[in-house]
Amino acid sequence: MNEGYNPDVQSYVRDLFAAEDDILRGIGPAAAAAGLPPISIGPEEGRFLQVVAAAIGARRALEIGTLAGYSGVWIARALGPEGKLITLDNNARHAEVAARTFERAGLAGRVEVRVGGALDLLPALAGEPPFDLVFVDADKESYPAYLDWSLKLTRPGAAILAHNVYLHGDIVVPDGTARVAGMREFNRRLAEDPRLQSTLVPLRDGMALAIVG
Ligand code: SAH
Ligand code: MG
Fold it and tell me: Could you read off the pLDDT of 62-75 as tens digits, one per residue?
């Protein structure tokens, strides 16, 4: 984590732009107590998601990979009182912890947690209104398939974001594993797809941002 960051610089950015309130601060310890791994986004990434959401006027968001709801709280808060976040996770225990997070955050009315494999749940979303923002943060080998679905499920001008696109450095190390191959294909398609204007933002482990044309 925190690739490329002097820890003092990270604290400086967090203190200025991404201060956590008690709700956000409580999510990590509650998740750890429930046995969930400490793999959520960081505060400065949460703030980045919010600024992108504001830039495009996002009201409807989709998240693939809920964990304990930490990124979900940042996103849901950026969607306004009429906003809606649908977040998908295939681990029922994670979904339960996340549901409690959203309850405590007063966001239960704005967030729907759906339990199941993302590739099994995504087709049903095609019948719903399009999304303004998608945040991809689940199994890395499926990122190309998640990009296909994101393109199907978003409106023109929407933002597609994805976490861990540097794979902690593995993205540039010769390696034949499915997660590296999947992430390379994902990043390459973001760069080359004429429907997208994209870049990788060097926040921590790399955050992809693509705007749908
Ligand atoms: N976005 C969260 C962290 C997500 S961690 C945050 O920053 O707070 C990745 C999550 O993806 C885990 O909870 C894991 O259970 C879920 N996941 C992994 N593979 C999945 C799949 N195929 N379908 C749905 N969820 C999946
Ligand atoms: Mg991640």
Answer: 999 999 999 999 99
Mutate which of 24, 25, 66, 136 for ligand 1? The one with the most ligand atoms within 8 Å of its CB, which is 66
Domain enclosing residue 72, as ranges: 7-212
Torsion angle, alpha carbons of 77, 80, 81, 82, to 10: -130
Asked, for residue 1, whether it belongs to a domain, the answer is no
Residue 66 lies in a domain: yes
Q: Is residue 29 part of a domain?
A: yes
Residue appearing with tokens 């204007």? 197
- What percent of the chain shows pLDDT beyond 70? 98
CA terminus-to-terminus distance, the chain: 32
pLDDT at 112 over 60: yes
Q: Residue 204 in 3-state DSSP? A: coil
CATH code, domain carrying 188: 3.40.50.150
Pocket lined around ligand 1, Cβ cut-off 6 Å: 39-41, 65-67, 70-71, 88-91, 94, 117-118, 137-139, 142
> What mean pLDDT is predicted for residues 174-198?
96
Distance 163 CA to ligand 2 centre (A): 5
Number of domains forming the structure of the chain = 1
Which residue has 């984590």 as its token pair? 1
In a domain, 2, yes or no: no
Q: Are 72 and 63 in contact (CB under 8 A)?
A: yes
Whole-number pLDDT of residue 202? 95
